[in-house]
Structure formats: structure tokens, C-alpha cells
Description:
The complex is a heterotrimer.
Chain A: E1 4-13, E2 16-26, E3 31-35, H1 42-50, E4 57-62, E5 65-66, E6 77-80, H2 92-102, H3 109-120, H4 136-148, E7 154-158, H5 166-183, E8 186-191, H6 194-200, E9 203-208, E10 211-216, H7 218-223, H8 228-233, E11 237-248, E12 251-256, E13 262-266, E14 277-283, E15 287-289, E16 301-312, E17 315-322, E18 325-331, H9 336-342, E19 346-351, E20 354-358
Parallel strand pairs in A: 3-8, 3-9, 6-7, 7-8
Antiparallel strand pairs in A: 1-2, 1-4, 4-5, 9-10, 11-12, 11-14, 12-13, 14-20, 15-19, 16-17, 16-19, 17-18
Helix pairs in contact in A: 2-4, 3-4
Chain B: H1 2-25, E1 37-42, H2 46-62, E2 68-73, H3 77-89, E3 98-101, H4 103-111, H5 119-122, H6 131-136, H7 139-144, E4 146-147, E5 153-154, E6 162-169, H8 170-178, H9 191-203, E7 216-220, H10 224-233, E8 239-240, E9 245-246, H11 251-265, E10 269-271, H12 277-283, E11 287-293, H13 297-306, E12 312-315, E13 326-329, E14 332-334, H14 340-353, H15 356-366, H16 375-378, H17 380-385, H18 387-394, E15 399-401, H19 408-423, H20 431-449
Parallel strand pairs in B: 1-2, 1-3, 7-10, 7-11, 13-15
Antiparallel strand pairs in B: 3-14, 4-5, 6-11, 6-12, 6-13, 8-9
Chain C: H1 2-15, H2 18-24, H3 31-63, H4 67-71, H5 83-91, H6 94-125, H7 131-141, H8 146-157, H9 167-170, H10 186-190, H11 197-208, H12 212-220, H13 225-236, H14 238-253, H15 257-262, H16 271-276, E1 279-280, E2 283-284, H17 286-317
Amino acid sequence: MAVVRVESLVKRYGAVTALKGVDVFIPNGSLTAILGPSGCGKTTLLRCIAGLLLPDEGRIYIGSQEVTRVEPFHRNLGMVFQRPSMFPHMTVYENIAWGLRLRRWQKHEIPRRVREILELVRLKGMEDRRYNQLSGGQAQRVVIARALAPKPDLLLLDEPLSALDAKLRAELLAEIVDIQRETGCTTLLVTHDQSEALTAADNLILMNEGEIVQQGAPLDIYRRPQSVFSANFIGTNNMLPCTVARLDAPGVVLKLEDAPLELVADLPAFPVEIGQPVWACVRADDIDVIPQETAPHYRNVVKICVERAALTGGFVSVEARLEAHPLRIHVSGSARFALLEQSPAFLTVSLAHVTLVPRD
Amino acid sequence: MLKRLSLVLLVLSVLSLASSVMAQDDPYANVDPTGQRVVFWHQHSGAREQELLKIVEEFNATNEYGITVEAINQGSYNDIYNRITTNLASGGADLPQLTVAYGNQAATYWLNDGVIDMNLLVNSPTWGLSAEEIADFFPAFYNADVFPQFGNVRLGFPPNRSMEVMYYNADWLAELRAAGAISFDGPPTTPEQFREAACAATANGFSGATSDVAPIGYQLSTDASRFASWTFAFGGDIFDYEANQYTLNSEGAVAAVTFLKGLFEDGCAGEIFERFGDQTNFANGVTLFTVGSSSGLPFYRSAVESGANFNWGVDAIPHTTPEPVQNLYGASVSIPRTTPEGELAAWLFVKYYTEASVQAEWALASNYFPVRASSAESLSDYFETDPIYRTAFELLPFTKAEPSVPGYDPVRQEISRVLTSIITFSDTREVSEILNELNEFANAELADASLPLN
Amino acid sequence: MANDSLIPSRAVSMASTPDAGKAAGIRELPTWWRIGRRVLLYGILTFWAVIAMIPFLWMITNSLMTLGETQVRRIVPAVPQWQNFATAWEQAQFSVFFMNSVIITAVTIAGLLIVSITSAYAFARIPFVGRNTVFTLLLITLMIPEAVTLIPNYLVVSGQIFPLPNTAEQFPFISFQLGNSWIDTLPALTVPFMGSAFSIFLLRQFFAQIPNELYEAARIDGAGHLRFLLQIVLPISRAPIFTVSLLTFIGSWNAFLWPLIVTNDNRWRPIAVGLYRFSDEAGTQTHLLMAGALITILPILILYFITQKSFTEGIATTGLKG
């Protein structure tokens, strides 16, 4: 159990700078997800924290100890990799016991601990199996067990679910969350899959191009993105160019550009001035289709021109236009099929939740 | 008084001069071989090696100087030659005290200052051989290791020899005689008789043959030693020692090769297609004559016993000369240049090795011939049991040898190649023309090889 | 789905009628052609298999004949001469030479494994300056023919290039030569073969395929390169290690020319040199030679059968998924 703090971390690979002065705070006992597109530096960050890479500048603290240049072994970590790193010539028991032996656990303690941890990952009774007798998911659970067996301060997971098939992913993710709740071990999960991050994490770090874009609770980032990147990366977002018309606590009134339309948005975390150009962000799922007569009960009611509607599994994806601006709506709920059947030309919708991000 | 003194002085000085001259004549006079270790490199294996080791043990146990000989097999003649030349090329530090060597190999060693002139030891008043002992050696054997082209130095000493003989199937010859296919009794003594018998055999197979292969009178292996043997039998030679030049195109050689070619043209002789194929066919009663080394006698014996099991024998190569002329060969032992003590100790062993009684033992076990005529006395019992060996032994006074000159090995290979091309008719030129060309090649090799190694 | 329904019907049409097959562009082969082809194939393979076996069978039959029978080229012996093996053993002093071969081979394999495994691991998994250059140079040496290196190796081993460590002092039981030459010593017969570019190459290729995740996981648990090599890499590298050992065993056991050159004495000569003694200029004792040869290859055959089992086992248990 430990807090992890990273200060101004810089890591270069030749001409490429993978981490450009990163500051991170990971609360004790949290399940933190580091999320970002490929090449954003999240794996580099994780490996620096693990000690598998040495940063060029900056400092890393685990607990109260500075560990920037300390060997991984001395950082008291467990790590799970993308591909199962189970030792193929050893049984499940030996795999887990190996690490314990290396850390000089007492001989009589080891069997008990192995049994304990196997029960935790729901592999009870599989001590004598070998790698080729386990499924991908089971192997990954063995690796998790091996990582947690020596009671580490920190558990690092580097895209642990990417090598598994879709159905297994959800299952294993849920287990990881359960395990983390039970052990209370500070956990860092690197992933490029936003649904994973949103589901599992209680703390989210969003990265792009070697920099931290936003950190905080997932819901926070989801509802209150602070940059174009944050807004666009998670979910499907509509960005409408606006200017600030009035400040009207607890909201802000925006005027849509090139249109005689005003929208009410939430007060942003950054200061705004009248006349400032901003992006109004509306998530495609935050737009409700309402019957014309109920309009007064909703905010930001607008009329949109429907161009296309398609069924995409759980929702109907509607491509429309608000004035001149493209708008995408995800319509869910039992009424959504009506849209397909009827294909109306116009829709009345309510932009239920609008946030602001800076525009420059 | 002064006169007496000067006389004494004169006598003393003459004496000392004489003794120093005598010492110069015998550089080994004051050398002490006590306790020396003699390393002997040889190529013998199996039963021969066992016998050699026995002889060595006896010498070690009985010699009065405490000399210890260590005889070690070092591979084949070729392997030994390669090692010694490599050694000589890099300074000659680790040479054995005694080694086997063919004459031409010893010649190469001499050119590179690798061996000593054994005349100094053989003729040494202190350590050498007496005149009667020397007379006991078969002359051809004894002189084979003396090299006129180097001023008559002796570069080796013969511990054994073999010779080329003609093997014949006596029962088959008797059959042919009985059928009137040939006009003489017993083994042929002239090339004409040989041809007659060979051609008759090709037409009339042996009744006791144990193989379906078509009968053939003679199978020739195109070895250079066969070339030499037949040339000798036709009264020629392949080397002129006076002129130090090859005579591969001499009258005798041309006659011999033409004779052999004639046999092939008439289908009375055939090639050999596998190693020891002639021996196999002989044993199966398919081939009437073969020509090969006398050291192969035990091999022929066991082959015939397992084959058609007929009466057979050996005799001289059929010759145009009044007496037989047999090709005598074998390796001698040479003494490399090491230390005077080592060289002397090696010589003392060689003396023991070539004593008549030791030679008799050695001959029996090795199937070589002893080099001393008096060994015949110890072998008389053996002659009773093995008349074929005795026949061969009695041919020993009538021998000639192939040349011991540097570079002889590549010449041997070329002779073999040329002989093959003649009898397979792949080279259809006149025999004399081909042999002229061969002779030029041989002389060129001789010139090349007479230069030192480095 | 529209696509799914298409696939089954297409599969049916390919198998059923030739016409449908032709329509799809595939020609259906007539039965007689298929059978005939199989017969032909098996026929050719059997033929070549028999040809390959003939020398071996000839060796076995000849080892049980008398000398005479081998000379007259009999096919099978009249009475099997089992004592040939005992005779060959004595005559060629096989007891000495056999022991020597065993020791030489064991030492060579041990040394080779230590050298090859460690260097292959370094080439595969430890980055160092000039690693690729050195590895390329190593590969280039594979192209140098043996005959070219024979004499330089001899000069080095006999101490003529630079003085060699005087093993006689430190290891008197393996050396009988004092001074700075290794002629007639065990090191001369073993050390030159401990550095095999081929073995290093083979092992290096295998080690390089081991996923990095394994190493990192081990590292996090506190293992360094050495522990990782010994406890993780080696147990899963059984197949290439067996291959390398077997090839070295065969090479070392059959070595003839080099041992003959670097020994002047019978003390350390191996078994192949002993076999040489059955031929001399008068003729070859074929029956003993064949018996001796059979004795010589027996250990190789046994080792081959043993390792072949472990081979396939080894490959099956090390299937690294993902």
C-alpha cells in the first residue's frame, strides 16, 4: 500500500521525447488507470515507475522513498504484462513460489501463501497445472497471483487484457477490480481502451503525446473534460464553435457561431470572458430526442436536420445538422427503432449537458 | 738428447694427429649412449605392431647401455612424412630419434638437413658393422639406401622388404594344360607364355569357380609399382642413376607397356574396379593371374580358403631377361638429426633389429622378408610349412628397386594415371609418345623436388 | 447474415460434382491417379531408404564374417563370428582409446555448453557496444573451411605462436607434457572445439525468441541475468541444447585427423585413431574393421535414440503461446 508520486519525469529515446515533464499523483489504495492513444507515453511512464526504464530527468517516489534509480526488485512491486509471462516449464505453484523464494520468504510460509493467493484469483486447486494446460485467461490470473503473492506496495498492469478475447476481457477486468478491492493494493492499470478505464478505475490519468492531459475521477473527466483532447478521446463528442455571450451563474450562455442560437453550458473550471471563443461539447449520448410539445421542460432545445440514421447495436446513430454544424446523436431507449422506421427529416432534441473547453 | 726429444715429439705428434684423424673418421667414437631415450615413429599396426613391441621390449631389457626405445604408431607413411616435413619446415626441434621412411622421403629429409648420413655409424670402428656382417645382408637390400646423387650417403637402413610377385592359380593352369589350351607346364616364365595362358583362361573358365563373374586371365592394377615390375621384367629400368634422370620411356618400359596394352586389346586382361577386386576374383577362381606384393600372402591365403580353395602359388614376374628381375620395395628406417647420443642410441637399436635371429622373428610375424641371408637358417622350419613363402624367398637374390629420389610420389601418381589411360584406350596415341611425355613430367618433378622445402 | 449463408453452399459444390468443381476452377483428381501417385511416392522413398541403409547393413554382416569371407565378398557369413568384436577390441587397444574418447567427448561437450550458452545469451539478451559487429564476425567464421584452419590451429596448440598456460602444473592428471605446448595433452583435444560458432548461433536464435516479458517478470522478482539464464531460460531450451550436444558428441567422437596431429603418443588418442590400425599396406582386416566401427558408433546410436525422445518431449512442453 503506497502513494506514488512522479515529478517532472522526462524520458527521451534518441530524437523522440516520450515523456515531457510528467507530474502524477496516485492516491494510496486506488485503482488508477493510465489511459491514452498508442504512443502517448503511458507504457513508458509505467515502466519508469516499475524501474525497468531509467528516466532522464525527474523523480519518482513510492511511499516516502525516492526510487528513481532503484532496482525494480527493491521497489516491492508486482507487475503483469500484456502477454502472459508465466514460466512455461514450471507448474502454477512453482511459478508463484519462485518469486517468494527469491524474496526469502520462510519455507513454511510459502505453501500457505500460494494457496491463499490462488483462492483470491479463483484458481483454487490448480497448483499442479502447467502453462499448456491453462487458458489465456487462467494464465493471466496466475501472473496476477504471482505479482500479488509477495504483498507488494504497488501492482502495475501493462495492458493486461489486450491479448485476450473480448468476452474474457470483461470477466477478467471485473476480477481485477474485485481483487483490488479485497487487497487494497495500490494498482496502476495502463490501457488504451476507454471502457476498461472508465469501468475499473477510481482514478484516471489521461495522457497524450508524452504529457498528462487530465487526471481525476473518471466521472469527472467524463462530465467535465478540460481540453479538446479529453473531450474527444472519451465517448463520442460534438464540438460546436461558440462565443461566450453572458455569464449567468451557475451556467454560461453561449452563442453558437453563424447561427442565431444560444446554449446554456456548465460553468467551466477555467475563467472565461465575454466574447471568448470556446468549444461547446455535447456528448452524443447527452442529446435527448423529445416530442415537440414537451420542449419547454427541457433546456437547450434545438431543431436539427437529420441526414442519416443507422442501427449500431445498442443505440441508433443519427447524423444530423444543427444549423450549419454537424451533430451526432446516439439515441437509445425503446423508442429508438421508431427513428429508423419513420426517418423524419427534422428532430427536436434537447442538448442536456453542455460543457466548455478552450478554443484557440 | 735433443734428437731423442725431437723424435719423441715427432712420434707423439704423429700419434695425436693420427688419433684426431681417426676421431674425424669416427665422430661417434666418444659419444656415450647410456640411458638414452629413443622415440621410434612407425606405421605398423595389429600383429606387426605387437611383434615390433616385443622386439623393442627385448632390446630395452637386454641392451647394456640402458637405452629405452619407445615405438609409437603415428598413422600411415604419408602421415609420418607430413609431420616430419612440417617439423623440418618450422625448425626441426621435435624430431623422433628413429623413423620409418621410404627412400624418396628420406631424400627429401636429407635435402632439408633432417637426417644423418648413416655411413658414419655403419662404418664406425667403434659401433659399426663388421665386413662379414655386411656381407650377410642381401646386396640389393643393403645398397638400396645409398644415394649416388648425393655422393653415396646412406640415408636409411632396411629392417624388412617385400617384393612384387605373380600369383597364379595352379589348378586352373593344370586344367588348361590338360585341355591343350596352353603349351607349357606350370607357371609361365616368359611374357609370351603369360599371354598364352591369360588368353586361354579368358576363353576357358575355371571349373571350380565360386562366382558368376566372367573369367579373365589377368587383372592389372595400374599402380606405379606394377609399371616398374613389368619394365624390370622386360629388361629395362625406370631411372638412370648415373645421369640422375628418369627413363620411363626406355626400351624396356615401352615394350612392357605395349605388351600390357596388347593383353587388353585382345581381351585377355581386365581392369580392377574395386579395391582388392583382383584378390577377390582370384580367390573365387575368376582371374588366373594377379601381380602384387608378397606381404599380401596371408591375405591371399585366407581369401582362397574361403573362396574356391584351389592350389595356388607365387612366382617371378615372367621375364625376357635370362634371370628373373623382381621389384623389391619397402620402407627403411632413417635417423633424423637430433643429438649425437640420440642418433647413436637409435643406431644401436637398428643393429639389434637387423640381427639375423631378430629378423627371422620379425619376418615370421610380419610377412616381410628378412634382410639377412643367414636368417634363412632360422626360417627353415617355416619353409617346410609354407612352401609358397619359400618360393618367394628364393627370388630374393634377383631384385631391383624403384628410385629413391625426391618428388617420386607425384610421379607415381602420374604413372598410374597414364597407365590407366592407356589400358582403357582413352589415350590412343603411340605408347612411346605417351611415355616420352610422362618422362618429361617426371624429370620436371625431380628438378622441382630437389630444391629445399623453405 | 448474408455472407454466412453463402459459404456453406459453396463448400458443398466444390466437393460434389466435377462440373461444379470445374465451375469453381478446381479439377477433381481421378482415383487411379491419386492411388498411383501415392504408390509412386512410397516406392521412391522406400527405394532411397534402402539405398541409404545398405552400407550400414553391409557393415553389420561383414563384422560377423571371417576375413576370407569378406575378401570373397560373401553376402552373409556362414557362421556368425561373434568373437570379432572381442578381437577388434583387444587388437585396437579399444579399452584405452574408448575411455579416452569418452573423456574427451564429455569434457568437450561440457566446455562447449558453458561457452556457447553464456555467449549466446549475451548476444541475444544483453545489449553491449559492438554486439552486432562481433556477432556478424562470428557468423563469418562459419564460412571458413576446416582445412584452412588446421595448420594455424596446430601452431597455436603446439605453443609456437604464444606460450600456452602450463596445464601440467595445475592439472597433472590431464597433462603429460611440461612446458608451454599442449601436444599430447587433454586440452589440445578439447579446448579448440569448445568455441563453436554454429552452436552459438543456434542457441542465440533460440534465446532471442524468448519473450522479454519473461525476463522483466523475473527481474521484478529479483532475478538478474544469471539466475534468469539458469532457472528460466535453460529449462525451456532443452531442444536446442540437445541438438547442440548431439552434434558436438558426434563430431568429437568421430574426430580423427586433429587428434592424430596433436598427439605423438597413444596416451590420449581417441577411438577413431584406433580404427585406423586395421588397415596396412598389404590389406585391410575388413571383418575387424567393421566390428570396430560398430563398437565405435554404438554410443552415438544410443545417444541419438535417447535424445530423440526428449527432443519431441521438449518441443511439446515449451510451446509458448501468444
